[in-house]
TrEMBL record:
<dbReference type="Pfam" id="PF09229">
    <property type="entry name" value="Aha1_N"/>
</dbReference>
<dbReference type="InterPro" id="IPR013538">
    <property type="entry name" value="ASHA1/2-like_C"/>
</dbReference>
<feature type="domain" description="Activator of Hsp90 ATPase AHSA1-like N-terminal">
    <location>
        <begin position="29"/>
        <end position="163"/>
    </location>
</feature>
<dbReference type="GO" id="GO:0006457">
    <property type="term" value="P:protein folding"/>
</dbReference>
<comment type="similarity">
    <text>Belongs to the AHA1 family.</text>
</comment>
<dbReference type="GO" id="GO:0051087">
    <property type="term" value="F:protein-folding chaperone binding"/>
</dbReference>
<dbReference type="GO" id="GO:0001671">
    <property type="term" value="F:ATPase activator activity"/>
</dbReference>
<dbReference type="Pfam" id="PF08327">
    <property type="entry name" value="AHSA1"/>
</dbReference>
<protein>
    <recommendedName>
        <fullName>Activator of Hsp90 ATPase AHSA1-like N-terminal domain-containing protein</fullName>
    </recommendedName>
</protein>
<dbReference type="InterPro" id="IPR023393">
    <property type="entry name" value="START-like_dom_sf"/>
</dbReference>
<dbReference type="InterPro" id="IPR036338">
    <property type="entry name" value="Aha1"/>
</dbReference>
<dbReference type="InterPro" id="IPR015310">
    <property type="entry name" value="AHSA1-like_N"/>
</dbReference>
<dbReference type="GO" id="GO:0005829">
    <property type="term" value="C:cytosol"/>
</dbReference>
């Protein structure tokens, strides 16, 4: 096999017309935060919602807090966004001079939920029959119109903002549309990583029988690329296909797979070693295992050895299977670490 720097096409920069990111292999990221805030304000501010003698309008985008990014890996676009939005609105009934004001709160516009399922809370200032009618109108009709604008934001993020992330290959001046594969972070996919519950483990006062798991896996990537896949929140989100909380530093906490896997970083040596306190949600309360990833870069691949101590004996088989299925195999699929180009 080719050694790094000796013919591997992923690292020969002259194969690219601009001498960067061979075949779009490397992970590249573009911050979509500022653009997204402007786009959301443009779509939502002064949005008019009228029907059957009821006239309402969004008068102000009071808050847009969060983040968004567009990422390219091996010719695939991966998007991450999470926003907390507050809108002010006002409206009146036909023939009435009274103006009712209120707010709409969108607490979590993200890949975790389809836009059609995004939660919205409608509130009003004041009371009375007219106010309640307008609130009901915004709850039933207004929310649908707002969701249409949010859907347009997601479309423009994926189609307009991401232009330029996929680079042309050698001899090409533009990127062919059929050469682009767009994927999301997978928030909408529900992965079941629940362990089998052992009633024996739940018994108070019983000594827990534990064992050690040792696994090894090869990845066609650099050592620091595997390290990044395990410690950069956007990359962890991509391969776990779920919402991630992570502080990649000594003592930093993490929560993956809908909170089914939680833990803390004990040691981090970039490109070489990761040590974690790690547990399943349904393990005996407060019981943590210790996981050590040893990362070793070879001539033509990276070897990763995993050692997990203090695994409940009844969970060894399932935990081993899940490491391969939800970590190793998923990392290879998400980032192309399974084979050379």
């Amino acid at each position: 096999m080719a050694k790094w720097g000796e013919g591997d096409p992923r690292w020969i920069v002259e194969e690219r017309p601009d001498a960067t990111n061979v075949n779009n292999w490397h992970w590249t990221e573009k911050n979509a935060g500022p653009w997204s805030k402007d786009r959301l304000k443009e779509l939502l501010n002064n949005l008019k919602i009228a029907q059957n003698g009821v006239d309402c309008k969004v008068t102000e985008v009071e808050k847009v807090d969060g983040e968004a990014s567009a990422n390219n890996r091996k010719g695939k676009l991966i998007f991450f966004y999470e926003w907390d939005i507050k809108l002010k609105w006002e409206g009146h009934l036909a023939g009435s001079k009274d103006v009712v004001k209120g707010e709409v709160h969108i607490p979590n516009l993200s890949e975790e939920n389809d836009v059609s399922e995004v939660d919205m809370t409608v509130t009003i200032k004041g009371s009375g029959e007219e106010a309640q009618r307008l609130k009901a109108f915004m709850h039933n009709v207004g929310r649908d119109e707002i969701r249409k604008q949010l859907k347009e934001y997601v479309r423009s993020l994926k189609e307009e903002f991401s232009k330029g992330l996929i680079l042309p290959k050698k001899g090409e001046t533009t990127v062919k549309p059929d050469s682009i594969s767009t994927i999301t972070s997978g928030f909408n996919k529900k992965i079941n990583m629940e362990p089998v519950i052992s009633t024996q483990n739940k018994q108070i006062g019983c000594k827990l029988d534990t064992k050690t798991i040792e696994l090894s896996e090869t990845f066609q990537c650099r050592a620091d690329e595997f390290y990044n896949a395990m410690t950069k929140i956007e990359m962890v989100t991509a391969f776990t296909q779920g919402h991630v909380k992570m502080e990649a530093e000594k003592g930093g906490k993490f929560a993956l797979f809908g909170g089914n896997v939680t833990g803390e970083f004990k040691e981090l040596v970039p490109g070489k070693k990761i040590v974690q306190y790690w547990r399943y949600k349904q393990w005996p309360e407060q019981h943590f295992s210790e996981v050590t990833f040893t990362i070793e870069e070879k001539d033509d691949h990276t070897l990763v050895k995993l050692k997990q101590d203090l695994v409940p004996a009844s969970e060894v088989e399932h935990t081993s299977e899940n490491w391969r299925r939800y970590y190793f195999d998923s990392i290879k699929r998400a980032f192309g670490f399974g084979a050379f180009l």
